[in-house]
Amino acid sequence: QKEVEQDPGPLSVPEGAIVSLNCTYSNSAFQYFMWYRQYSRKGPELLMYTYSSGNKEDGRFTAQVDKSSKYISLFIRDSQPSDSATYLCAMSVLGNNNNDMRFGAGTRLTVKP
Amino acid sequence: EPEVTQTPSHQVTQMGQEVILRCVPISNHLYFYWYRQILGQKVEFLVSFYNNEISEKSEIFDDQFSVERPDGSNFTLKIRSTKLEDSAMYFCASIPRSGSYIHEQYFGPGTRLTVT
Asked: Which of A43, A98, A105 minimises the CB distance to B110?
């Protein structure tokens, strides 16, 4: 089993739709969970991070962590064409050690006008 | 807004050749990183660098790789004898200060390395 699994998509939705992006993981020691957005020909850009379980909201974005199920989600409300990008989940045990940071493969999202 | 820059954007090289990938981190940042992303695969940590020495490295970062901060602004990744499997996007990242969390890192736009 891979340490972090993420459906690569592609995922295509109409403008205004609610998008749900998900990752599962196998290492129960992960405590820090991050979502990155990556536009074509650009580096990953941090969208949100959470520590431990629970929800975190920032504008149209909500990050959710369920440690009991080893499952994390990113929800995008009222999706816009500018949200079209690849979304990467990442997680870490310690939060300050890049060697233990694990990325998902990324989900490519297209929001159609 | 300050940003991490990387050059070149695309490098094509022949197998066995040496390549140097360059990064200019954000000016007041102290920790520097290299990651790679093989096409269609996940981003993988290679190495971190602080105070002119390697802090951590992954299993990928073998003797063929080296890093250097030659002049106080550039941060370079050298691959001595490239292999076909080194073809990937290479991202540089930096963090402001000691004790920063990994979510505080800024990524550059990447250099696409193609080994033929």
From this structure: A43
In angstroms, the CA B97 to CA B95 distance is 6
* B99: nearest CA partner in chain A: A96
| Block residue for tokens 């959710």 | A64
Choose among A42, A92, A99: nearest Cβ to B56: A99
Please name the residue that has the structure tokens 């390697």. B54
Cα-based angle B68, A94, A53 (whole degrees, multiple of 5): 140
What pLDDT, in 10s, does the model give residues A10-64?
999 999 999 999 999 999 999 999 999 999 888 899 999 998 788 999 999 999 9
Asked whether the beta carbons of B69 and B10 are under 8 A apart, the reply is no
Query: In residues, how long is chain B?
Result: 116
